[in-house]
Amino acid sequence: MTLRLGDTAPDFEQDSSAGKIRFHEWAGDSWVVLFSHPADFTPVCTTELGLTAKLKPEFDKRNVKAIALSVDPASTHRDWIKDIEETQQTVVGFPIIADADRSVSTLYDMIHPEASATATVRSLFVIDPAKKVRLTITYPMSTGRNFDEVLRVIDALQLTDGYTVATPGNWKDGDDVIIPLTVQDPAVIEQKYPKGYTSPRPYLRLTPQPNK
């Protein structure tokens, strides 16, 4: 199954380091970052889960829950969490799905046979409170993810959900944003973008970020 942007994230019930989880119920009305790992007790994954744990205050500010996955059993996850917490000097406050039967991995197309026939690649999904897939990123097993980029994209998604704007390349929270080409009526522009805008080209109109 290939998930595309705008698809409903499949629901599932699976064991985890925190016990049985029914995904949609667990997610509630939060945004979710669901990300997979090739295996427990691996070095890159250990650093990634440590980073995610340290970002909990940033996720909380954005109403985001994190949940990880690998194909190892829950008992192994719980043992691994002890290592993560000790080596990364943090507390892992989110569950790790125990996808031993690979059912969730299959639902989310996390196993890429040309990379590994059994282990999940570094898939990451951002899912909104309506359970829609809003972002997908896939990294190779050898490369750790950039979680600052994950936060940046969530900021952009939440901003553009609330206002009729788009974000330019390398945008960060607080930077100018773009007035979409779909907005052309001068009265609408004046109403929606009271801070005004600059227009180096007719199709490129930059306006200060609206207050979130």
TrEMBL record:
<keyword id="KW-0560">Oxidoreductase</keyword>
<dbReference type="GO" id="GO:0006979">
    <property type="term" value="P:response to oxidative stress"/>
</dbReference>
<dbReference type="InterPro" id="IPR050217">
    <property type="entry name" value="Peroxiredoxin"/>
</dbReference>
<dbReference type="InterPro" id="IPR024706">
    <property type="entry name" value="Peroxiredoxin_AhpC-typ"/>
</dbReference>
<dbReference type="Pfam" id="PF00578">
    <property type="entry name" value="AhpC-TSA"/>
</dbReference>
<dbReference type="InterPro" id="IPR045020">
    <property type="entry name" value="PRX_1cys"/>
</dbReference>
<protein>
    <recommendedName>
        <fullName>Thioredoxin peroxidase</fullName>
    </recommendedName>
</protein>
<dbReference type="GO" id="GO:0008379">
    <property type="term" value="F:thioredoxin peroxidase activity"/>
</dbReference>
<dbReference type="GO" id="GO:0005829">
    <property type="term" value="C:cytosol"/>
</dbReference>
<feature type="domain" description="Thioredoxin">
    <location>
        <begin position="3"/>
        <end position="159"/>
    </location>
</feature>
<dbReference type="InterPro" id="IPR036249">
    <property type="entry name" value="Thioredoxin-like_sf"/>
</dbReference>
<dbReference type="GO" id="GO:0042744">
    <property type="term" value="P:hydrogen peroxide catabolic process"/>
</dbReference>
<dbReference type="InterPro" id="IPR000866">
    <property type="entry name" value="AhpC/TSA"/>
</dbReference>
<dbReference type="InterPro" id="IPR013766">
    <property type="entry name" value="Thioredoxin_domain"/>
</dbReference>
<comment type="similarity">
    <text>Belongs to the peroxiredoxin family. Prx6 subfamily.</text>
</comment>
<keyword id="KW-0676">Redox-active center</keyword>
<feature type="active site" description="Cysteine sulfenic acid (-SOH) intermediate; for peroxidase activity">
    <location>
        <position position="45"/>
    </location>
</feature>
<keyword id="KW-0049">Antioxidant</keyword>
<dbReference type="GO" id="GO:0045454">
    <property type="term" value="P:cell redox homeostasis"/>
</dbReference>
<comment type="function">
    <text>Thiol-specific peroxidase that catalyzes the reduction of hydrogen peroxide and organic hydroperoxides to water and alcohols, respectively. Plays a role in cell protection against oxidative stress by detoxifying peroxides.</text>
</comment>
<dbReference type="GO" id="GO:0033554">
    <property type="term" value="P:cellular response to stress"/>
</dbReference>
<keyword id="KW-0575">Peroxidase</keyword>
<dbReference type="InterPro" id="IPR019479">
    <property type="entry name" value="Peroxiredoxin_C"/>
</dbReference>
<dbReference type="Pfam" id="PF10417">
    <property type="entry name" value="1-cysPrx_C"/>
</dbReference>
<comment type="similarity">
    <text>Belongs to the peroxiredoxin family. AhpC/Prx1 subfamily.</text>
</comment>
